[in-house]
Amino acid sequence: MQEKNDIKENIANTEISEEIIADSEMNETTTEEQNLSFTLDEDNSKVEELQNSIMRLKADFDNYKRRTQEEREQLATFVTADVISKILPVLDSFKRAQDSLPNTVDENIKTGLDMILKQFEQAFTNIGVEKIVTEGKFDPELHEAMMRGDNPDLEEGSIEMVFEEGYRYKNKVVRHSKVKVVG
User: Fold this and answer.
1) Whole-angstrom Cα distance, residue 105 to residue 65?
2) Whole-model pTM above 0.70?
């Protein structure tokens, strides 16, 4: 009978050992799953961080392209306005020479000079150069007051006479109009 008890006790111990082993294996599996889950969460976090970094870099690059394009346009406007300001004295001299021609000059010469002047002004128009309007009120952003005058027929602050035409290019004043102002 002792043998039976020993066998029963061995069987009970074996069952307990098997339960302990099964519990241990389950704990190892759960720990491995937790480790894998933690690693996956870390990887997802890194992927999300990299995606955000890429989006920021793309936005920075788009802003850089936009800024450089704007700078190029500003530089082109500045250079063109500078060239125009250097050509304007030639146009002024041409107009003064044409105005000072005596009446005895051949009509064909006057017609030819008028055609050259119109061609010059058309070239300016094609480039985008505009004459500054000198009729009406004085505007210090567009006009330069050279003299003050008294004219009872005009309202105070009005432009009475234009000494030199002003021009602008792409809303940038290349040269202010030089004027005489009432008041």
Assistant:
1) 58
2) no
The pLDDT assigned to 167 comes to 94
Separation between Cα atoms, residue 142 and residue 133, nearest integer Å? 8
64-89: per-residue pLDDT in tens?
999 999 999 999 999 999 999 999 99
DSSP one-letter code for 173: E
Q: What is the pLDDT of residue 39?
A: 75
Q: Is 179 helix (H, G, I), strand (E, B) or coil?
A: strand
DSSP 130-172: EEPP-SSB--TTTEEEEEEE--TTS-TTBEEEEEE--EEETTE
Residue 15 has pLDDT above 70, yes or no: no
Fill in the amino acid letter for 27: N
Q: Which residues pair with 177 in a beta bridge?
A: 143
Q: Angle at Cα 20 formed by Cα 17 and Cα 26, nearest 5°?
A: 140
Give residue 14's pLDDT: 58
Q: Which residues 6+ apart lie within 8 Å of 77 measured at CB?
A: 169, 170, 172
